[in-house]
Write a structure and sequence with these properties.
- Residues 1-22 are annotated as: Disordered.
- Its main location: membrane.
- This is ABC transporter domain-containing protein.
- This protein is α/β, with parallel strands linked by helices and 648 residues long.
- The chain has 2 domains: 3-353, Rossmann fold (3-Layer(aba) Sandwich), CATH 3.40.50.300; 378-635, no CATH class.
- It contains 27 helices and 10 strands.
- It has a 6-stranded mixed beta sheet with strand order 6-7-8-3-9-10, with helices on both faces.
- Helix 18 (408-432) runs parallel beside helix 21 (489-514) and helix 18 packs antiparallel against helix 22.
- The protein starts with a helix and ends in an 8-residue tail after the last helix.
């Protein structure tokens, strides 16, 4: 039995869950044109930092990504998009799916579903189009099954019950032959299993049109054919319209494709038609020599003498030959015929099924995924519990029984600073080590309509809050009681409350830094020098009266400054009498009564500093949220720039 037939048996209709759609959809596009906006008018208006990196000159001409391309893909067929790197394959997929905006690009042309013209928003929200991107991102510490459950709970029609959604997940896992690895966490999956998981995530909603960007990249020939066999079965057995990008096709892959859509550099269309038509076109009209389609594509990608001018010349000739060919004329007539059959019920009926989940449901399942992930994430479990508690015990031993020391005030100040440094660094690091990749996934899932950015950010804050209470409670309690700072419950509770506020403020700064970067390394690299400056401005290493006036404003945005000075006022204003009684050292009392004034701290501003500290926390959260909103506005740019190299 052939591999294709083997896969076909997997795709049987589900009997245990309702169907989202059985509509057969033909997708067509006419004169689709996309180019970058002129840099002189886009850099400042877009407010995108990556725009500045991309444009090195003040004035730079726009670049054409797609140049008036047309095509159509029918139900039960596989249309293979092929071409050289930088030809615009991914740009075409993004344009068809509607995953781009016009803030940095100038698109034109039309995309039709069953002959009805559609907007980007309609294609995204109708649920008819499922897009498997070239690079999918996952939460590595959730299992394959848990990932699909999360997708089902937020993407399937609102009238479905949770049991029906779980049933749909089980059916999808069986259809894609993922039963053996369904309990494995995603970081344990092989490359082929991750590709099938990406397919499953999209196939879960039963879209009528599947756009799949380079599903075989990075796989060996066996796994590549296995994936293509699965895709072929989707098209035939499930009556899907499939458009797939193939970068390095083999002859056996061509046998599974019905239509070939060829792009060359500059986003120009070089061919549209069947395999046999392609062979005839390249041999008779273009006078190229090869016995296979992949041979022709290789010639277009790299001419024999590897000369760039010849490269452009050959590709231009092929594109011009196709534009005047019978195949191009027949395609134009086919697309025009589709317009006469236009029916917008294909959109409206499907859009009624797919409504955004409620705010409560979004928060519930975002928190569920976060807590499930945390149980297997060593950074948020082993690191926080073991490393910080062990450090707290070590510091507790170092500062053990401070009342018996001869340099009591100096040691208490050191304890206060140690608590601040340990709390700020640990809380910020935990956020920085996980949030950048989570933000990237969250923005992409938001773009797919699963939840709003506000819901995502609220779930992040709510999810982190218990950890930001438990961590300072454990660490500060250990250091506090071992150092014997002040054996009164009121002072202890105030000490813990300030520590919790410090921990939450540090986490807010971590979220702020993480929102700037898409990588963990970048977020940590950006935060380290800034946190070091904030540490110097805490007041422990340097008297703040000696800070230059121009830099003095920095202390008021430093979490270390507010935390350390608050601890100092708490200790030397409210705890001085207790220390005198506990330590029975008159010199300690005399020193403590003048200690606040010697550091230029007011005895009356404890509550004021708490309020200012809280304000810094809230403002940092607000800034981080706003940056995520800006990232959402420009997420389309990320989609569209993955298939071509930036200008130099």
């Amino acid at each position: 039995m052939s591999e294709t037939n083997e896969h076909s048996r997997l795709f049987l209709p589900s009997k245990s869950s309702p169907s989202t759609s059985t509509t057969e959809v033909t997708i067509s596009w006419s004169n689709l044109h996309v180019e970058t906006r002129n840099s002189s008018s886009s850099c400042w208006s877009s407010i995108s930092s990556s725009c500045f990196r991309r444009h090195k000159k003040k004035q730079e001409k726009s670049r054409i990504l797609l140049q008036d391309v047309s095509g159509t893909a029918r139900t039960g067929q596989i249309l293979a998009v092929m071409g050289t790197s930088g030809a615009g394959k991914t740009t075409l997929m993004n344009a068809l799916s509607g995953h781009y905006g016009d803030n940095l690009l100038v698109p034109s042309g039309n995309v039709y579903l069953n002959g009805f013209p559609t907007t980007d928003t309609e294609r995204r929200k109708s649920g008819h189009i499922g897009y498997v991107e070239q690079q999918e991102y996952f939460i590595d510490t959730v299992s394959l099954e848990e990932h699909l459950i999360f997708q089902a709970m937020l993407r399937l029609p609102s009238e479905w019950t949770d049991d029906e959604r779980r049933s749909r997940v089980k059916n999808t896992i069986a259809q894609l032959h993922l039963n053996k690895c369904m309990k494995n966490t995603i970081n344990q999956l092989s490359g082929g299993e991750k590709k099938r998981l990406a397919l499953a995530s999209v196939f879960l909603t039963e879209p009528s049109v599947l756009l799949i960007d380079e599903p075989t990249s990075g796989l060996d020939s066996y796994l590549a054919m296995h994936i293509m066999g699965t895709i072929h079965s989707m098209a035939i057995e499930q009556r899907k319209t499939v458009i797939v990008v193939i970068h390095q096709p083999t002859s056996s892959m061509f046998d599974l494709c019905d239509i070939i859509f060829l792009l060359v550099k500059g986003g120009r269309q070089a061919f549209y038609g069947t395999k046999d038509e392609a062979l005839e076109f390249f041999i008779k009209q273009c006078h190229l020599s090869s016995s296979s389609i992949d041979g022709f594509i290789e010639q277009l990608a790299a001419p024999p003498n590897r000369n760039a001018d010849d490269d452009t010349k050959i590709q231009t000739q092929v594109a011009e030959k196709y534009a005047s060919s019978e195949q191009a004329l027949a395609l134009k007539e086919t697309v025009e015929h589709q317009l006469t059959l236009g029916n917008n019920t294909v959109l409206t009926d499907r859009m009624k099924l797919f409504k955004n989940p409620t705010f409560g449901r979004q928060v519930k399942w975002l928190l569920w995924r976060s807590f499930v992930s945390d149980t297997r994430n060593s950074v948020r479990t082993t690191f926080v519990v073991f490393r910080t508690v062990v450090l707290a015990c070590i510091f507790g031993i170092i500062y053990f029984q401070l009342c018996d020391s001869g340099h009591f005030i100096q040691n208490v100040n050191a304890v206060n600073f140690t608590v601040v440094a340990l709390t700020v660094n640990t809380s910020a690091y935990v956020i920085l080590s996980t949030m950048p990749i989570n933000n990237k996934i969250g923005i992409r899932e938001n773009h797919r309509g699963m939840f709003s950015i506000l819901t995502y950010y609220v779930s992040v804050v709510v999810h982190d809050f218990p950890m930001l209470i438990i961590f300072p409670l454990l660490v500060n309690s250990i250091i506090y009681w071992m150092s014997d700072m002040d054996n009164t419950w009121s002072h202890y509770l105030a000490f813990i409350a300030v520590g919790i506020l410090v921990s939450n403020t540090a986490a807010a700064y971590g979220q702020f830094f993480a929102s700037f970067s898409s990588t963990i390394e970048g977020a940590i690299s950006a935060s380290v020098p800034i946190l070091q400056i904030f540490t110097i401005l805490s007041g422990f290493f340097l008297s703040l009266t000696h800070i230059p006036a121009a830099l003095r404003v920095l202390q008021y945005i430093s979490p270390h400054y507010y935390a350390y000075t608050t601890f100092m006022i708490l200790e030397w204003k409210t705890g001085s009498l207790t220390h005198q009684l506990n330590c029975s050292r008159s010199e300690n009392y005399l020193e403590s009564t003048s200690h606040v004034s010697s550091y230029n701290y007011s005895r009356l501003d404890f509550c004021t500093r708490i309020l200012r500290h809280s304000s810094v926390n809230i403002n940092s959260q607000h800034l981080a949220f706003n940056i995520l909103m800006l990232a959402l506005l420009f997420v389309s740019k990320t989609y569209l720039t993955t298939d071509y190299k930036p200008l130099t």
